[in-house]
UniProtKB/TrEMBL annotation:
<dbReference type="GO" id="GO:0003824">
    <property type="term" value="F:catalytic activity"/>
</dbReference>
<keyword id="KW-0949">S-adenosyl-L-methionine</keyword>
<keyword id="KW-0479">Metal-binding</keyword>
<keyword id="KW-0411">Iron-sulfur</keyword>
<dbReference type="Pfam" id="PF04055">
    <property type="entry name" value="Radical_SAM"/>
</dbReference>
<dbReference type="GO" id="GO:0046872">
    <property type="term" value="F:metal ion binding"/>
</dbReference>
<feature type="domain" description="Radical SAM core">
    <location>
        <begin position="18"/>
        <end position="258"/>
    </location>
</feature>
<dbReference type="GO" id="GO:0051539">
    <property type="term" value="F:4 iron, 4 sulfur cluster binding"/>
</dbReference>
<dbReference type="InterPro" id="IPR023404">
    <property type="entry name" value="rSAM_horseshoe"/>
</dbReference>
<dbReference type="InterPro" id="IPR058240">
    <property type="entry name" value="rSAM_sf"/>
</dbReference>
<keyword id="KW-0004">4Fe-4S</keyword>
<keyword id="KW-0408">Iron</keyword>
<protein>
    <submittedName>
        <fullName>Radical SAM protein, TIGR01212 family</fullName>
    </submittedName>
</protein>
<dbReference type="InterPro" id="IPR007197">
    <property type="entry name" value="rSAM"/>
</dbReference>
<dbReference type="InterPro" id="IPR032432">
    <property type="entry name" value="Radical_SAM_C"/>
</dbReference>
<dbReference type="InterPro" id="IPR039661">
    <property type="entry name" value="ELP3"/>
</dbReference>
<dbReference type="Pfam" id="PF16199">
    <property type="entry name" value="Radical_SAM_C"/>
</dbReference>
Length: 309
């Protein structure tokens, strides 16, 4: 049974099993950019990407150490004995030469009470040399790599301007797994024109992969993204809170119970949020998911790999 009467395997539970104490993630902007923005692949980035490269709570104006100190001072009233995972969140955090990457990762790891490293990147930014570096960190600390797949469907990936095919993702997962490196994959629900059946297909595909964790996001429409412009032309509908809860529950039931659920709702910058407004109330979304799972006696993985209801 999952801890705290949860009906799914939470990151809190996984970290408690590993460390036996409270672990907090500290979000870091390592000052990287992204090949999907700097012209190497494209210049406009993913359709939903905000000006901060999907790292809306970070600021590269400060050093890595300063960013960590600032977050800890905000958290110290609530958690004064916690340990930390340094989370390189903004843009593509393996997009630099190995020497620079090592310097930045080491600065974060050398910070007191840091017990692990989480690195968000793209599957096409994992050369052999970088994989070797990551493997060396996985031997000395608790490491996971996050990959923003969002969907397995090529048409949706083109619409999102993701900039790599599914085969690149598959190769990255295989390479990381061969090196015993944990992977966390992001998927987005309510991508314009995708059906619930297509979302299920993505979930089932991921559930069969050797991934450690999953982040499920509601499509977040930000005014500083190209998605925001598309939304203002009224070209696609956005889920209501209830539709999102139904969709998440449907997906959770198809995900292996061994996969750690890192997130069930988005956390973007509220100042630039265009839609959906209910996303601001994260607690009510999470409670709604729990309530539905419990009242319908559902559990993560109950319908594992089952495409139809
Ligand atoms: S890969 Fe990430 S940082 Fe790069 S454009 Fe897409 S969402 Fe933004």
């Amino acid at each position: 049974m999952y801890l705290n009467h949860k009906t799914y395997y939470t990151l809190n539970q996984a970290l408690k099993e590993e460390f036996g104490e409270k672990i907090i993630k500290l979000s870091i902007d390592g000052g990287f950019t992204c090949p999907n923005r700097d012209g190497t692949i494209a210049k406009r980035g993913c359709l939903f990407c905000s000006e901060k490269g999907s790292g809306d709570f970070t600021s590269c104006a400060d050093s890595i150490t300063e960013q960590m100190e600032q977050q800890i001072s905000l958290l110290s009233n609530k958690w004064n004995n916690a340990k930390y995972i340094a989370y390189f969140q903004s843009f593509t955090n393996t997009y630099a030469d190995v020497k620079e990457l090592k310097k930045k990762y080491d600065e974060a790891l050398d910070f007191p009470d840091v017990v692990g490293l989480a690195i968000a990147t793209r599957p096409d930014c994992l050369s052999e040399e970088i994989l070797d570096l990551l493997e060396s960190y996985s031997k000395q600390t608790f490491l996971w790599i996050e990959l923003g797949l969002q969907t397995i469907h090529e048409k949706s990936a083109v619409l999102l301007r993701r900039g790599y095919p599914l085969s690149t993702f598959d190769d990255a997962i295989k390479n990381l797994h061969e090196r015993n490196i944990r992977t966390v994959v992001h998927m987005i629900l309510n991508i314009p024109y995708e059906t619930q059946q297509q979302m299920r297909e993505t979930a089932i595909y991921l559930s069969k992969k050797t991934i450690w964790g999953l982040k499920i996001h509601m499509l977040y429409v930000s005014s500083d993204s190209d998605l925001g412009k598309l939304y203002q032309q009224n070209t696609f509908p956005v889920f209501s809170r209830e539709e999102y809860i139904d969709s998440v529950v449907d997906i959770l039931c198809r995900i292996s119970p061994n996969i750690v659920i890192h997130r069930l709702t988005g956390d973007g910058d509220k100042a630039t949020l265009l839609a959906p407004h209910w996303i601001r109330d994260k607690r009510s979304v999470l409670n709604g998911i729990d309530k539905k799972m419990r009242s319908e006696k559902l559990l993560q993985g109950l319908l594992e790999h089952q495409l139809c209801p």
